[in-house]
Write a structure and sequence with these properties.
Blueprint: H1 13-27, H2 44-68, H3 76-84, H4 88-98, H5 102-107, H6 109-120
Length: 122
């Protein structure tokens, strides 16, 4: 295991996390189709579209997990680590940021409103 620090990517931590999440999802065998290009887009507009799509996919995945996490069985922390490969702290940071977005409210309004109420203590 290397002790060298990881290289910092350009952009915000949220953008880097969204791209890492999209890359991990794309690496799964069920997401690879015959004849799909694996090269990164060279068009800046396409890169922005990929980033937006990755962010929306991550928001949906986190909200879907939060809505049905009890079906995973066992401890929630273990399920988070298994599903996303994140610590529970990172998961709750991502969830907290996700519920502030219009995409989250559009995807699952009841869950988002419930989580906002719980977070705000109302």
């Amino acid at each position: 295991m290397s002790t060298e620090p990881r290289q910092r990517s350009k952009g915000t931590a949220d953008e880097a996390a969204a791209l890492a999440f999209a890359a991990a999802e794309a690496a799964r065998p069920e997401h690879v189709g015959i004849g799909e290009a694996t090269d990164a887009p060279t068009d800046p507009g396409a890169a922005a579209d990929d980033l937006a799509r990755a962010r929306e996919e991550r928001i949906r995945a986190v909200l879907d997990f939060e809505a049905g996490w009890s079906s995973h069985g066992g401890a929630k922390a273990r399920a988070i680590r298994t599903e996303f490969g994140w610590s529970t702290t990172r998961y709750y940071q991502v969830l907290d940021a996700a519920i502030e977005t219009p995409q989250a409210l559009h995807h699952d309004p009841m869950l988002v409103r419930r989580l906002l109420r719980l977070r705000d203590g109302a």
